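Running this now, will post back.
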Amino acid sequence: MPTFDIVSQFDLQEVRNAVDQASREVSTRYDFRDTDSSVVLTDNTLTLSSSTEDRLTAVRQVLEEKLVRRKVSLKTLDYGKIQEAANASYRQIVTLRKGISADKAREINKFISKLKIKGLQSSTQGEQLRVQSKKRDSLQEVIAALKEADFDIPLQYVNFRD
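Update: finished.
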């Protein structure tokens, strides 16, 4: 029976490369001079910091540019509130989202069942979903419908088996 898995993941090496490029650009650009702006990656969080909120927004834009160039979806980023830090500076914590939460999995399962495709089954398996059908065309129809819908998380379709 043909199946495929729906996952939400990102390439950590590409994120690391984008952060390195962004921090290099922030350290060399003239408009960031004397602002103590930085981008730091730790585990699954990024810490953006700068001396003013405007510069912090500019650091965020530089980071987003680099991530887009490296084909990392901006939907993986979960921005926290801008906080005041020591020495009259500002900081923002950005969490990198990986995996499909239980709520999102239910939402995607409901969406798939509303398609009313005969012989189609979807089930949650940890942080991913498995979709099964007797016909390969039905699975391709589901992938096309999911690509059109917006679930606020990046979705990848892997392990397509006949």
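Residues 51 and 88 are 7 Å apart (CA to CA). More later if anyone needs it.
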